[in-house]
Amino acid sequence: MSAQRDRTPEQKLEVPVIEGKTRFIDLGLDERLRDAITDIGFEYCTPIQAETLPFTLSGKDLIGQAQTGTGKTAAFLINAIQRMLLNPIPEADRFASEPRILALAPTRELAMQIAKDAEQLCGYTGHNVVTVVGGMNYDKQRDQLQNEVVDILVATPGRLIDFLGSQDVFLDQLDLLILDEADRMLDMGFIPDVKRIIRKCTPKEERQTLLFSATFNQDVLNLASMWTRNAEFVEIEPEQKTAERVKQTVYFVGGEEKLTVLVNYLQQGGVDKALVFANRRDQCRDLDEDLRNQGIKTALMSGEIAQNKRLKTLEQFKRGDIQVLVATDVAGRGIHVDGVTHVFNYNLPDNAEDYVHRIGRTGRAGQEGTSVSFASEDDAFSLPAIESYIGQKLTSSVPEEELMTPLLKPVIARRRSSNRRPPARNQQRPRQRRA
User: pLDDT tens digit string along 220-233?
Assistant: First the structure.
């Protein structure tokens, strides 16, 4: 797994010194890792990278709080790869089924994104990255574990538990444990599985542990203290919880008007790639069908869709073959696609934090983005909590006249459920665990 490095030393060091910014070339990284970082286009550390890498590269455990899109994945992967390069294992002593690095993530999409980033950063180092997640070919993953040297294992808890049970993987030689999006793992009910996994790992006194989370409630903090040893705590709070380069608008509409406004907005031009969020799977299914009926190139992203189909859909979305992805919050967390121009909140989320994660899918990598939320009589009550959480008043109005133009095609006749909240008794039902 080696590529050609054809830059001269002078070319590699052409990164200007900027006050207040940390250059990757100043971190003392192995040249092979530095070259991969340069190939990706990284020159300066993001705040989470600049704050965490001095601690982690010196071997300290770390608890990091940072939102999605802040560069935390590269922060923990750079440390992981540098750690392996500084402590190489002779070829004769490298075995299958015994990873040196384990990165646990709550969703398949996030795990696969971590693995993709890891493969890029290992471009010159010769380290092997293996991914084990639910919803994909079990036998192929088992074959990799049994027959390949596994340096970095990226996994979701459910599938990893399966392989631990069948003794296709062993974690007693682990050098570094990474727990990403710990708050989401807690929300999704994965913590019992994570505890079982950690009991199989090298003791915390003999490994480095990095835990990252977008939020820290007392439950997450308690877990972090159990799994880490004398950990440094780094908190990166953006100046605003929502990006300044995302224009945020709220339309006050009736529940039956949402589809009309959305379709007209999508058809008026300028919407190249859009994510549309609804709160429940049945709402997403209905909305996907309605948009298709109106001639919109759309696809559905939710936990009930087979993983291979979800990956194919994401590739089509990246290429521009699909204009709109309709997604639930859990599926949306795993969508990392550059160039998303618009995010639509068909329903305002019950949780203000989910609003931040939703609109964070646009306005990335220095680009401008637009967020449009629909507030009806059924979900407008969520607006004050969202505004309080993000620390700003959202621009609210009724839709422009052209957005209210009646649709040319008839709307599918069905009992509308997109705005009705589930009965109170269902709100207490525990979430299904999904890998």
Answer: 889 999 999 999 99
State the pTM of this model.
0.64
Instruction: Give, for 374, the enclosing helix (H) or strand (E).
Output: strand 369-375
pLDDT above 70: percentage of residues in the chain: 88
229, 269: one domain = no
CATH number for position 364: 3.40.50.300
Which residue spans within 228-352 are E strands per DSSP?
A: 232-235, 246-252, 274-277, 298-301, 324-327, 342-345
CA 70: distance to chain centroid? 11
Residues of the domain holding 340: 246-420
Q: What is the pLDDT of residues 297-308, one digit of tens each?
A: 999 987 777 777
Check if the beta carbon of residue 197 is closer than 8 Å to that of residue 171.
yes
In 3D, which of 290, 193, 198, 261 has the Cα closest to residue 398?
Answer: 261
Residue 162, Cβ density class (10 Å: 0-12 exposed, 13-18 middle, ≥19 buried)? middle
pLDDT of 106: 87
Do 378 and 253 fall within a single domain?
Answer: yes
